[in-house]
Amino acid sequence: MTYKSPAWLPGGHAQTIWPALFARRRFGPVLPKVRERWTAPDGDFIDVDRQGASSPDRPLFVLFHGLEGSSSSHYAQAFADWAAEHDVHFALPHFRGCSGELNHGPRVYHSGDHEEIHWVLGKLRQQHVQDGGQTLVAAGVSLGGNALMRWAAEHGKMAKGSADAVASICAPLDLIESGRAIGQGLNRQIYTRMFLRSMKPKAMAKLAQHPGLFDAKKLMAVRDLYAFDNVFTAPVHGFKNTDDYWSKASAKPLMRDIQIPALALNARNDPFVPAESLPQAQDVSTSVTLWQPQHGGHVGFAQGSWPGHIRGLPDQVGAWLMTAAGKPLSQRNS
């Protein structure tokens, strides 16, 4: 697997921001998606956006989005385009609160949400098999990637019952180090502010649903993700505080337990996933492939002449997953 950043797009910040805003996401027509609403085991709901293939027995690709992402995210559109080109079913389950509608319960989502991953993948596998399909692969982006790897580690060999191969893309596999990085310097001014712009209003709406859930004054005063997680994410999801949450939710300490084919992709110039925090061969099982190119930014990986495109990311990750699952597909030449 290879990646070389274009000369016109230097540096981790540019390679993160430009692809998200301006790079081309599709090479083919936009296929229609169907939204399904599922009732969760706790009585709440999640929304799953699905895009079909030519026949029910074609493989299924599942994408778990990142923090505050959705099926409209730039990478989600690129992966949906890849799925359409290769005649693969595509499903994007929205984490709670990310589909455009507030969920009913106090619970939302977090970086180690492997229980939700387990339920979603199990249901998708069951549906796919009932429809005559067999192969199911899954990828998770950033937060979704850490949660997916956490799930694979938790379930070991049993994970094979739900997915044939998995991949994490730019996941903060060491949440302590990534949390520290995103709260400092330029990262704090750009990315922390961007996330908090949507996360704080959602949390306040959740408080209106469930009075007393947290201290509103403390939440409105937060200026970084550490403080936000201390006031909201950690206590709402059963953690003592941010340190407890980041420590217990990180996938990296458990990656030796992964027993299905898994790819961990991280650019070494990702602005808020420090290169020194990335797993090395001794940190993972033999089932895990590490791909750590020097460039790419955070979920960027733009290619081609200006303004560039981001289809190279799904091309390579999708090809790896299908090959690992025993169903290699032909790739577009570009």
How would you portray this structure in words?
With 334 residues, the protein is of the alpha/beta class. It folds into two domains: 12-173 and 250-324, 3-Layer(aba) Sandwich (Rossmann fold); 175-249, no CATH class. The protein contains ten helices and eight strands. It has an eight-stranded mixed beta sheet, sandwiched between helices. The radius of gyration is 19 Å and the shape is globular.
Q: How would you briefly describe this protein structure?
A:
The protein has 334 residues and is α/β, with parallel strands linked by helices. It is built from ten helices and eight strands.
Supply the key terms.
single chain; 334 residues; alpha/beta; Rossmann fold; 2 domains; 8-stranded mixed β-sheet; 8 strands; 13% strand
How are the SSEs ordered, and which strands pair?
Layout: H1 12-21, E1 34-39, E2 45-51, E3 60-64, H2 74-85, E4 89-93, H3 114-130, E5 136-141, H4 143-155, E6 165-169, H5 175-182, H6 185-209, H7 216-221, H8 225-236, H9 242-249, E7 262-265, E8 288-291, H10 312-324
Parallel strand pairs: 3-4, 3-5, 5-6, 6-7, 7-8
Antiparallel strand pairs: 1-2, 2-4
